[in-house]
Design brief:
The protein has helices at residues 22-33, 48-60, 116-129, 146-154, 177-184; strands spanning 6-9, 13-19, 64-71, 74-82, 99-106, 136-139, 158-164, 169-176. Helix 1 (22-33) packs across helix 2. The chain is an alpha+beta fold. Strand 5, helix 3 and strand 6 form a beta-alpha-beta unit. The radius of gyration is 15 Å and the shape is globular. Strands 1-2-3-4-5-6-8-7 form an eight-stranded mixed sheet, with helices on both faces.
Length: 189
């Protein structure tokens, strides 16, 4: 399990990460994953009970975990980390030792801050790479999600190929620690 971490962003503020507690965080996360801006999470019609059940299932899974990201101490984003050889991408790609899968979602807001989402994905990646066993992060965004594809590129991801998942056509993409450091200048070793 990855330990909670801290990432500083001078212009944006301080990001910290803590484990998601399904009993405590389900209502908060429900508001995020059912918001129209979270359409790619495919949970738009989920009830509160559905969301709590989903995150209880993740909490109980040996190869999947969820975290709440805080911005200056306030909940602001969601992270899911998974072993792609066991969850999401099992059998769909050529795994490498040290691969970690990732999903992230920024909470909807009425007062957007320029550069915030890029600062969040940078903090998420730094959090994942703070674990020395992680050598590469893999993601599988929807082929039509151009906003997240641009963010992924900004932090060093390269598209490997398109893959067909049961719920979507996805762009399998990967980012090594070195690619992340070169793209962002962040070195968390």
């Amino acid at each position: 399990m990855t330990r909670p971490g801290k990432q500083q962003s001078a212009a944006i503020g301080t990001f910290t990460v803590r484990p998601l507690d399904p009993a405590v965080d389900a209502e908060l996360v429900h508001g995020w994953v059912t918001h129209p801006k979270a359409a790619f999470w495919l949970m738009g019609d989920a009830s509160l009970a559905d969301v709590e059940r989903e995150y209880r299932s993740i909490a109980a899974h040996p190869h999947h975990e969820a975290f709440i990201g805080l911005h200056d101490g306030e909940p602001a984003f969601l992270i899911e980390r998974y072993d792609p050889t066991e969850v999401e991408l099992k059998g769909l790609y050529e795994a490498e030792p040290g691969d970690a899968g990732m999903h992230f979602l920024v909470a909807p807001t009425d007062t957007p801050v320029h550069g915030f989402t890029r600062a969040v994905i940078t903090a998420v990646m730094a959090f994942l790479f703070a674990d020395p066993s992680v050598r590469r992060v893999v993601v599988e965004p929807d082929v039509t999600n151009s906003a997240v594809q641009a963010l992924n590129k900004a932090v060093g991801f390269e598209v490997l190929r398109e893959i067909a998942k049961p719920e979507k056509d996805a762009l399998l993409s990967a980012c090594t620690r070195e690619q992340f450091e070169a793209a962002t200048g962040v070195n968390d070793r």
